[in-house]
Amino acid sequence: MASLVYNSLCKDAFLGRVVIGTSVIKAMLVTSAYVENKDTHLTRADITNEVSGTGYTAGGQTITATLTQDLTTEKTILTFPSVTWANSTLSAVRKVIYYVANGGAASGDYLIGVNDLGADYSSSGNSLIIAASTLTLNNP
After folding, report:
1. Are strands 75-80 and 83-100 parallel, antiparallel or unpaired?
2. What is the sign of the dihedral through the CA atoms of 126, 29, 119 and 18?
3. How many Å apart are CA 27 and CA 34, to the nearest integer?
């Protein structure tokens, strides 16, 4: 499956649950066994098959996302920076889940989007670097 924005993002943004620039956003790694559902996956509790290994903390890593608008094409673009897991030993990393971390239960962490890397990646005691990515929303 291609990268996507979860359908709950718009509602969560309007309700103030997801605020790019002030919310704590994390990048979490999962394997190809995770099958995203943009309609029914709402929170981190819906995510399965998170990777584990040396140099990786469950729940992922905090990042700073940015939001821009392209008024010519009428699109809103979410940009996520590259993320590095230094000195890590990880295998079968296939997707990055972006979500708002509220510091409590996974059911209170709101999903933003998923980036499918297109292939499985691994690291063996070295750094795993996930390149910067963007997710695009079409403005109505």
Report:
1. unpaired
2. negative
3. 15
What are the tens digits of pLDDT across the range 54-99?
Answer: 999 999 999 999 999 999 999 999 999 999 999 999 999 999 999 9
Which residue type occupies 3?
S
Give the single-character DSSP code of 11: H
Give percent of the chain with pLDDT exceeding 70: 99
- Look at residue 137 in the predicted model and tell me its pLDDT: 87
Which residues are CB-contacts of 53 (< 8 A; sequence separation ≥ 6)? 88, 89, 90, 91
Sequence-distant (≥ 6) Cβ neighbours of residue 86 within 8 angstroms = 55, 127
Check: CB of residue 43 under 8 Å from CB of residue 105.
Answer: no
**pLDDT value at residue 138:** 82
